[in-house]
Amino acid sequence: MENIWLLVLAAIAGCLLGGFYFGSLWITVRQLPTTAWPMRLTIGSLLGRMAVVLLGFFIVMNGSWQRAIAGLVGFIVARTILTRYWGPKRQLMTDSLE
Fold first, then answer.
1. What is the pTM of this model?
2. Are the CB atoms for 41 and 35 separated by under 8 Å?
3. Sequence-distant (≥ 6) Cβ neighbours of residue 73 within 8 angstroms
4. Could you tell me the end-to-end alpha-carbon distance of the chain, in angstroms, rounded to an integer?
């Protein structure tokens, strides 16, 4: 039973790491048109995001591949949710009929 709770906590931590990663990516992309050094911003953001997420996964995993998989599932869930939230908006069929 304790093992299940650790997997649930690993999945929640993966969701938080995914939220951080993709939220930071969204902020970076929105800042690109206004920055004087877009390449420096892109590479610096990538390195910072990767460092935080890899360290987070290393801590969450703690030597257990099951927790690593649970964290990865949480990370992908966060990606899916944020992609649907921030992705292109679809028009309803009724809007095109008018």
1. 0.83
2. yes
3. 11, 14
4. 56
Q: What is the pLDDT of residue 14?
A: 96
Q: Which tokens go with 1?
A: 């039973």
Coil, strand, or helix at residue 91? coil
Around Cβ 17, how many Cβ atoms within 10 Å?
24
Q: How far is Cα 77 from Cα 23, in angstroms, rounded to an integer?
A: 14
Q: What is the mean pLDDT of the chain?
A: 90
Tell me, rounded to whole angstroms, the distance of Cα 62 from its chain centroid.
20
Tell me the helices (H) and strands (E) count for the chain, helix number first. 4, 0
10 Å CB burial of residue 22 (0-12, 13-18, 19+) is buried
Q: How far apart are CA 19 and CA 58, in angstroms?
A: 17
The two structure tokens encoding residue 54: 């890899």
What does the chain come to in residues?
A: 98
